[in-house]
Amino acid sequence: MQISILLHFMIYTILLSDSAGLESVNEVSKKNILKSEPSKTDIQKYQLFIKNEVIFQNLKPFWKSTGLCPPDPHEESYNFLLSPDMKLNIFHIGSLPRKGISQVRIHWMLDLVQMRVSHFKVEYDFSRLDKLIYLLWENDLQPGFELMGNPSNYFNDFENEIQVYLWKDLINKLAVHYIDMFGIDYVMKWNFETWNEPDHHDFDKLNFTIQGFLNYYDACSEGLFSADKRLRFGGPGGSCRIPTKGHSPICWALLHHCSYGKNYFTGKKGVRLDFISFHKKGNGSSNFIIDEEIETIHYIFSNFPSYINTSFYNDEADPLKNWSLPQWWRADSTYAAMVIKIILNHIYFYYVEKGSDLVKDAKFNLLSNDNAFLSYFPNQFTERTLLARFQVNNTYPKYVEFIRKPVYAVFGLLSKLCPNILSSNLTNGGGDLLNNWGNNIGALATHCVSQEEISIILYNSADTYKNGSTANVDVFLNTSYLKENTSARWSILEVNNWKSNPYLVWKNIGMPSYPSIEDFVLMKSKEEPYMKGPYVFPNSTLWKIQLDVLNPSVTLIHICKKPQKLYQVKNIRFLQVWNKTLQISWTDQNNRCLSSYIILYSFDLYGSYHRLNKKRLLFPSYWHTCYSKKIKCNIRGFYKVFAVDYWGRHGPSSESFHFKG
């Protein structure tokens, strides 16, 4: 590619303060703990050329999903799913910018339902499940609702006609109950799904035959349909191995039944299947996931052509199976970069390039990681989780605190992507054209038309390996999208092992089992992406910026034209963690080009407010600690929040929200 004009732009180095702001921490030792510089012994040159051409419009963010499974015994799963630890876990997941994650897919939810049958009358008690659904709802999340579990262990045979009809009634009553409680607009967003991994036969006290599973499926489908025909239902949520490579009889029996079989209740041929869900994990390789998906989807198209327009979900697309198996790379940006690599693989393969003729018509609509589990000592960081969980047992009272891992932070970066994908070419130092995805280096450029905004995300990932390389990338951008861009600003946000790695901080302070408040302050100072800027954007039609994209890491370039105004932050919510700590979150769906949020506090509603956060705050949440030996403070009181944009403008303050303690 020939480029005649190159405008070089020098990056300013003046950044906002990165002070953690806790007086009792020795500042010299703190700097030593937080200081870590990458080695740049292996530098590889790349160029990324971004054109003034949209190659895909209206990309839906299909990756906003996570999941978890409660431990045995499942009949007592309410103790786990309604525990204080899970409430804090869900609070954090719901605190990502712009609903960075919107669905939590949870196993065994029906075990929270109690059922009584007496004198030919059936009564259902949804009170425990109500609490879980309400927990998701108040955190702006929705369930991925697997119709999985056995209320009061009543059911044991789905070839028994009475039990099949009773199951249909249960599902109908459940759906009607939540439509009445939350409204159809909320419930119709849910992905109702079959029993998880049916070919693994993890049915607890139920004994499913293949015919029994098909009867169960029809009962679920008809129960939901009779509640409201707009409710979405699919499955089988399993490995679905093709017959030449594995044994998945229930999976293929279900697809055959829905395509060619008869509905148990209506007797008519054909049963609705709104989406086909399967689980294809990576075995340590990001590209392995796509390969497995291609194999299964091609088999489905070849044997069940009626599914050509059916949506496909990979709702357990994790890089490696076994969530509790400790892996060093799950602790830091290695995992984060690999997740971004997998997502970009799917964007390019299924949406932009239609990467294989075998599956070019596939409608791929959901990619989920199963990483909303709670980690346990001594593997706080190294299990497959979004957060590192610490059980602090040397205080009174004992309490649990979470640290957000880099894999959590990158979902905040994804929330800045735009729906229109721009054409881009990635080349190496020798000028050879590379794929934008599937390699150790990948990139995606996007454009928001209404906001005149450009977001470019790059990753450097060798999957579960650290190769120590640095990708030195020259980015060339045609800026004609930013009309009259004299007021534009831009920034760089990075998630890597040097600027945003709380695990490294924990290691440097001796890996304490029970971190102190001072320790938590240090770790939390590295939870968010590291931001450079904002800077003034040059008034030109061609722009060049040089980046060092470290391995492993994710980098986002964010360019914004000045919006007309900032919007008010809403819905401040609180969750007390300990006597002296309070987790705060709020809703901000409208402001995008922000350099920080500011948190204000007053003990009295009409008293004077003072600023709490001393450092930049990029995500719509704040951890407030009132643990100082020099200053008297209180977590009870009134809180307000406002946004600050790239131009230094302050948005309107939120209403005052009262935390009573």
Automatic annotation (TrEMBL):
Which superkingdom is the protein from?
A: Eukaryota
Task: Provide the leader sequence positions.
Answer: 1-21
| Sorted UniProt keywords | Glycosidase, Hydrolase, Signal
Q: What family does this belong to? A: Belongs to the glycosyl hydrolase 39 family.
Matches recorded under PROSITE patterns: GLYCOSYL_HYDROL_F39
Q: What does the record give as the active site?
A: E197
One GO MF annotation is: L-iduronidase activity
State the Gene Ontology BP annotations: carbohydrate metabolic process
> Which organism's genome codes for this protein?
Larinioides sclopetarius
Official protein name in the record: Alpha-L-iduronidase
The Alpha-L-iduronidase C-terminal domain, residue ranges: 572-659
Pfam families cross-referenced by the UniProt entry: Glyco_hydro_39, Glyco_hydro_39_C
Give residue ranges for domain Glycosyl hydrolases family 39 N-terminal catalytic. Answer: 51-540
